[in-house]
Amino acid sequence: MPRTSPLDGLRFAFGTLTVFPVRVTRWDREAARGGMLCAPLAGLAVGAAAAAVGLVLLFLGASGPLAAVATVAVPAALTRGLHLDGLADTADGLGSGKPAEDALRIMKQSDIGPFGVITLVLTLLAQVAALAQAYDASWARGACAAVVSATVARLALTLAARAGVPAARPEGLGAAVAGVVPVRGALLAGVAVTGAAAAVAAVFGPYDVARTSLAVLLSLAAAEALLRHCTRRFGGITGDVFGGLAETAATTALVVLSLG
């Protein structure tokens, strides 16, 4: 097998987690490891694009809520709605109350159930409301919140792909990336993202450094709680669960950043 290069990991991350025109040249465990370690970089790109759209609308005279809606729409568009779809499917699987095999079958169906609809609506409303409040505080805070939340959302995927977390199915994205990231690598990625987010927030003052750091940590804690629950219920992770983790982390980060 040819030696894995950092570009293989970047291609894997951007090719599987975004719609950016990147061709995945390798689809093996080594490339998946690099890809999941690079997942926060894909989130950074998505968040920057989302913030740019929101700022353009603000500078053109749009209101904070309208800019927030556009900012939330960009990540959905840049992921083909896969994370939102995964969130809805995960909610339907968990809400069904059925055994793991039946719940996984429900999650694979193309339709969306009541639990999925309710979860999607409430999640998107929370994201828009939190971003609107951030934009009302200042355009810079809103942009920062958009970037941090998108980056942390993909960081949650890095941590979920760590060694020791099994796949619920033998096929699919969940099986391809389950357990590929060494625990040490996942922790280092978490420290790096938290430190970078705090450094960016330093331009607003010490309080924002603390709040941003807390937002990252609480979003990861929320994603970890969901990961553990899904692992118990389904026997492991799936691509849908990854989507649910990303949206859970993003929403938690935005809510925390809107407080105070």
From TrEMBL:
Membrane-spanning intervals of the chain: 34-60, 112-132, 138-161, 173-203
Keyword Ubl conjugation set for record: no
Pathway terms, separated by semicolons: Cofactor biosynthesis; adenosylcobalamin biosynthesis; adenosylcobalamin from cob(II)yrinate a,c-diamide: step 7/7
Catalytic reactions on record: alpha-ribazole 5'-phosphate + adenosylcob(III)inamide-GDP = adenosylcob(III)alamin 5'-phosphate + GMP + H(+); alpha-ribazole + adenosylcob(III)inamide-GDP = adenosylcob(III)alamin + GMP + H(+)
InterPro entries: CobS
Major site of localization recorded for this protein: membrane
EC number: 2.7.8.26
UniProt membrane topology term: Multi-pass membrane protein
Location relative to the cell: Cell membrane
Family statement drawn from the similarity comment of this UniProt entry: Belongs to the CobS family.
Function: Joins adenosylcobinamide-GDP and alpha-ribazole to generate adenosylcobalamin (Ado-cobalamin). Also synthesizes adenosylcobalamin 5'-phosphate from adenosylcobinamide-GDP and alpha-ribazole 5'-phosphate.
Protein name per the record: Adenosylcobinamide-GDP ribazoletransferase
